[in-house]
Write a structure and sequence with these properties.
Elements: H1 2-8, E1 19-21, H2 27-34, E2 39-41, H3 50-63, E3 69-70, H4 80-85, E4 90-94, H5 108-117, E5 122-129, E6 139-146, H6 153-177
Parallel strand pairs: 1-2, 3-4
Antiparallel strand pairs: 4-5, 5-6
Helix pairs in contact: 5-6
Length: 184
């Protein structure tokens, strides 16, 4: 996880206090466990009732005194309890220049395939606030990525991912230093 590494090497003056994943086999949980960061698998498989799952996630975040909820590969909609408890304190990253190619069902390779199918010359990465609608929160920063004629979804995804790592770290640093206000 790039964010954990950035915290460890001093790039970010922050400490990851908990990792939650809805995928029991996620690399994030493995990395967190290896680094002794509390890690939890919470999903519709562990809690069938969505309200109960929302409450458990919220309580886990509060128990670990989370200041900022940073989504990285979390593909489920955030529940209303977590949204309320962490209002203006949840950010996410998306592999396009939102609002283009955002919304329900637009994630990962699906975004890159759609960008190429549409013949776009430019795509990019967006870090945004999270609200009750997929990918519609306030944009905090974006970076453009050229779409090459020779691109496949896979080659484009690889270039976008490199920019995702850079941009997410930059935005987090800007939040920490006050350059970006989440309350604006």
């Amino acid at each position: 996880m790039n964010i954990i590494s950035a915290c460890e090497d001093g790039t970010l003056d922050a400490s990851p206090v908990v990792v939650i994943s809805n995928n029991r086999d996620s690399g994030a949980l493995q990395i967190a466990n290896a680094k002794n960061i509390p890690a939890f698998y919470l999903s519709s498989h562990t809690h069938e009732n969505s309200d109960e799952l929302d409450e458990v996630i919220m309580q886990t975040l509060e128990d670990h005194k989370v200041d900022l909820l940073v989504l990285a590969g979390y593909m489920k909609k955030i529940g209303p309890g977590v949204l309320k408890a962490f209002h203006n304190r949840i950010i996410n990253i998306h592999p396009s220049l939102l609002p283009a190619y955002g919304g329900a069902g637009m994630y990962g390779m699906k975004v890159h395939e759609a960008v190429i199918a549409a013949g776009e010359a430019v795509t990019g990465v967006t870090v945004h606030m999270v609200n009750e609608k997929y990918d519609e929160g306030r944009v905090l920063d974006q970076v453009k990525v050229e779409v090459k004629d020779s691109d496949t979804a896979e080659t484009l995804a690889a270039r976008v991912l490199r920019q995702e790592h850079r941009l997410y770290t930059k935005v987090l640093r800007d939040i920490i230093t006050g350059k970006i206000s989440l309350d604006a």
